[in-house]
Automatic annotation (TrEMBL):
Keywords: FAD, Flavoprotein, Monooxygenase, Oxidoreductase. Residues 333-354 are annotated as: Disordered. Residues 7-352 form the FAD-binding domain. Its cofactor is FAD. Pfam families: FAD_binding_3 (PF01494). The lineage of its organism: Bacteria, Pseudomonadati, Pseudomonadota, Alphaproteobacteria, Hyphomicrobiales. InterPro entries: FAD-bd (IPR002938), FAD-dep_Monooxygenase_BioMet (IPR050493), FAD/NAD-bd_sf (IPR036188). It comes from the Bacteria. Residues 333-348 have a biased composition (Basic and acidic residues). This is FAD-binding domain-containing protein. One of its GO terms (molecular function) is FAD binding.
Length: 413
């Protein structure tokens, strides 16, 4: 066993926390460094498809997730202009088809579930207010220097995992001449409404996806049905700083004009008094994910546009494969990280490409939109679409190998 069994994870988002729990369950000590001085339940809703749900269930999150999530019966694809159904995808059959449920939840609730799992594992240390500033690689692993409002110091580990999101601080120190994320020409607005303030049809256990020219709307219940998560995305070249810039109702409605959008859709968009907005960014796929005892995970390496609802799911999958790779080769961390990267790269790239294709399909206008709607209504069918997603939803994490053997000696601390 190497001199240190500590893995350093930069970032306490969904991917970083999942990795921490998965690594601890394989016998590693984990140090999670998070630059935020406190963790807040921010963000929009997210969809936990069966491929991700299976990982979380394996980590012991099932009962907690059931208490804060909703298991939708269908994804209802609707015409933005008429409100009529184009397609109904029976995701409620996920348990039977793929062996795991399809959940929707608020990002903050999923993060809280993961934090509860972290708190139960004595081999995980979470340090807030610790921004990764630099790192140095040496024969024993890696030393990370941090700066921040509350923590500045150095931490040693066997490996460093950059799970610090789209604006990763680890990535530019790892990848030479790496360009910054590129705006995708889309702005997203999000809002949460108490369920009793919306029409009964919007409280159903359904993911509603409305498609229109240059824009789309998605909404579904979260927090066990108590809240309705609403996200509107439209073509927009304005660059917004941060994830939670204030957004006005009039600005949202401007992108969903009554000449093109159903009164039902516009009535829902008019309900929230408070909107938050952010700019969507993307990156082209990269062949290099890591070097030496350092690698990347989740949005830090393969940010997903949200049009496949797989951003969180891919980070969760990454975490499961990372833990497996390191557990299988604990004495060869660099080789283990290259194995992790090789096992994940093509799949993540394929999902990125599928997300970009859906961006185009969702936002068609004119004759192309008419043709899309006709195909959805007449040719596809919800069962066929669900089966076409089997390559995503049917993914299974590596079979557990059990905790790694660690000698109880001072050298292993």
């Amino acid at each position: 066993m190497a001199a240190s069994r500590t893995i350093i994870v930069a970032g306490a988002g969904i991917g970083g926390l999942t990795a921490a729990v998965a690594l601890a369950d394989r016998g590693f000590r984990v140090l999670v460094l998070e630059q935020a001085p406190q963790l807040e339940a921010t963000g929009a809703g997210l969809q936990i498809s069966p491929n991700a749900a299976r990982v979380l269930i394996g980590l012991g999150a099932a009962e907690r997730l059931k208490s804060v999530s909703v298991a939708p019966d269908v994804v209802r694809v609707r015409s933005g202009a008429t409100g009529g159904d184009l397609l109904r995808i029976p995701v409620g059959r996920s348990q039977a088809l793929f062996g795991a449920p399809y959940w929707v939840a608020h990002r903050g609730d999923l993060q809280s579930v993961l934090l509860a799992l972290v708190a139960e594992r004595p081999d995980i240390t979470l340090v807030l207010g610790a921004r990764v500033d630099e790192y140095a690689v040496h024969p024993k692993g890696v030393t990370v220097a941090t700066a921040g409002p509350s923590v500045a110091g150095e931490f040693n580990g066997l490996a460093l995992i950059g799970a610090d999101g789209l604006w990763s601080r680890v990535r530019p120190r790892l990848l030479d001449d790496d360009p910054p994320p590129r705006p995708a020409g889309r702005t997203a607005w999000r809002a949460l409404l108490p369920a009793h303030l919306v029409e009964p049809e919007h409280r159903a256990a359904t993911v509603d996806l409305w498609l229109g020219p240059g824009a789309h709307l998605v909404h579904y219940p979260v927090r066990a049905g108590a809240l309705i998560n609403i996200v509107a995305i439209a073509q927009d070249d304005e660059i917004v700083t941060g994830w939670s810039a204030p957004g006005g109702k009039d600005d949202v409605l401007k992108h969903f004009p009554e000449s093109r959008w159903s009164p039902k859709a516009r009535a829902l968009l008019a309900r929230p008094e408070r909107w938050l907005r952010w700019t969507l960014y993307g990156r082209p796929p990269t062949r290099r994910w890591g070097r030496g005892p350092v690698t990347l995970l989740g949005d830090a390496v393969h940010p997903m546009l949200p049009f496949m609802a797989q951003g969180a799911a891919m980070a969760i999958e990454d975490a499961a494969v990372l833990a497996d790779a390191l557990a299988r080769r604990p004495d060869e961390p660099e080789a283990a990280l290259r194995d992790y990267e090789q096992r994940r790269r093509d799949r993540a790239t394929s999902v990125q490409a599928a997300s970009r294709r859906n961006d185009h399909i969702y936002h068609l206008g004119g004759p192309a939109a008419f043709a899309r709607d006709l195909v959805m209504r007449a040719a596809l069918g919800g069962d066929l679409v669900l089966n076409r997603h089997a390559w995503i939803y049917g993914w299974r994490p590596p079979a557990p190998t059990g905790p790694i053997p660690i000698p109880a000696t001072p050298e292993s601390s």
